[in-house]
Write a structure and sequence with these properties.
The complex is a heterodimer of chains A (286) and B (71). Chain A is mainly α and 286 residues long. Chain A has twelve helices and no strands. Chain A has one domain. The N and C termini of chain A lie far apart (45 Å). The model of chain A has no long low-confidence stretch (mean pLDDT 87). Chain B has 71 residues and is mostly helical. Chain B has one domain. In chain B, helix 1 packs antiparallel against helix 2. The radius of gyration of chain B is 17 Å and the shape is elongated. The chains are: A mainly alpha (286), B mainly alpha (71). Chains A and B meet through helix 1, helix 3, helix 5 and helix 10 of A and helix 1, helix 2 and helix 3 of B.
Chain lengths: 286, 71
């Protein structure tokens, strides 16, 4: 297949599947909380709807940075699709992409000029201190498989079995990272309702739709990486089933857990990261 | 046509043309990656800036005013 067509196809799949999964997550959460909840396609519909809504840019926004930062989020997750499903490249690039995602959260908040955005911007730095150690899971994967290349990790698992079974604590760490990025998560302090919508508060209309587009791709990609790195060798149906199961599990946790305050959120994540790293190293040694 | 709309049209046309170039001509892979990473996001953003509804000129000032200007 033509490379550009392959990339366009994968970006479209990532957006559509990611949107439906985020809608599914809201639906599961609503049912657990005894509410009917919105339709599963609601997230997708909202994304399209925001592209047609009336938009105005606040006077206090730092233009053109205020718009450019939303493009940055899209750029990094399109790059993630290329590194992931298209080329099965290096996990290290995902680490870089995730680090930039935290920078985007920070700068989207600060560029808006809103105090809610600014508070979210501070929290983004705060949470990065906890989430980046969780991404240290990559080191454990390297120590176990001797490679950072996704295709080689899949080959390793074909020969030695799923990494989920051999380094379960590393999988748990990555799962906590996925949980942190899900809407209404106990760790989603950057978008906590106490600060309205956090760094997205002043990004409404088209810019909100654009952010939602990127977030759908981001959700798909995080699940894709988890399934590829810890289970490996799945066909498209296997990926879809895996993504639905993880999303439902995340929804179950989010429906029953309040959003933690920033201190508790960061300390919980750091504790889990510590347990994950030390535990995994012990498992690897013995 | 205001400045934002003119820039959006320009970016949209350049982005779509670049994507079509990569689709039809099939250039070296690094050019395709560069076009994808830069122009797919720009296509969507410029399309959004063109498709969004614009309010009345006299109401715009009220909508742009930020009620909270800091701590």
């Amino acid at each position: 297949m033509n490379l550009m067509a392959n990339i366009l196809l994968n970006v479209t799949i990532a957006f559509l599947v990611g949107s439906i999964l985020l809608g599914f997550q809201r639906k599961v959460m609503a049912r657990i909380q005894m509410r009917p909840g919105p339709p599963i396609i609601q997230h997708l519909l909202h994304t399209f709807k925001f592209f047609l809504k009336e938009s105005a840019f606040p006077k206090t926004a730092a233009m053109p940075f205020y718009i450019a930062i939303t493009a940055m989020l899209c750029v990094i997750w399109v790059a993630a699709v290329i590194v992931g499903p298209v080329t099965e490249g290096s996990l290290l690039l995902f680490f870089a992409i995730y680090a930039i995602h935290k920078i985007v959260e920070h700068n989207a908040g600060s560029s808006s000029g809103s105090p809610y955005g600014k508070l979210s911007c501070v929290r983004a730095v705060f949470s990065a201190a906890a989430e980046v150690p969780l991404f240290a899971v990559l080191i454990i994967i390297y120590l176990k498989t001797g490679t950072m290349i996704l295709s080689s990790i899949v080959t390793y698992q074909n020969q030695h079995g799923a990494l989920l079974l051999s380094i379960p604590l590393a999988a748990l760490m990555f799962f906590v990272l996925i949980l942190s990025k899900s809407p209404y998560s106990p760790f989603s302090i950057t978008k906590g309702k106490d600060i309205v919508s956090g760094y997205e508060t002043e990004h409404f209309g088209i810019l909100r739709g654009y952010l939602m587009f990127s977030e759908s791709i981001s959700w798909y990609m995080l699940l894709w990486i988890f399934l590829t790195v810890f289970i490996g060798g799945l066909n498209p149906v296997g990926y879809l089933i895996g993504m639905v199961i993880i999303t439902a599990f995340v929804a179950f946790i989010n429906a029953l857990t309040p959003i933690l305050n920033p201190n508790h959120s960061v300390m919980t994540q750091v504790t889990l990261a510590f347990i994950g790293i030390v535990g995994s190293v012990i498992i690897l040694l013995y | 046509m205001d400045q934002l709309k003119a820039v959006s049209w320009f970016v949209f046309i350049i982005s779509v043309a670049s994507i079509l170039y990569a689709l039809i001509i099939n250039p070296p892979y690094w050019i395709v990656y560069a076009i994808s990473i830069v122009f797919i996001p720009l296509t969507i953003l410029s399309f959004g800036l063109l498709s969004m509804a614009k309010g009345k000129k006299e109401e715009e000032e009220d909508k742009r005013r930020e009620p909270f200007i800091g701590y």
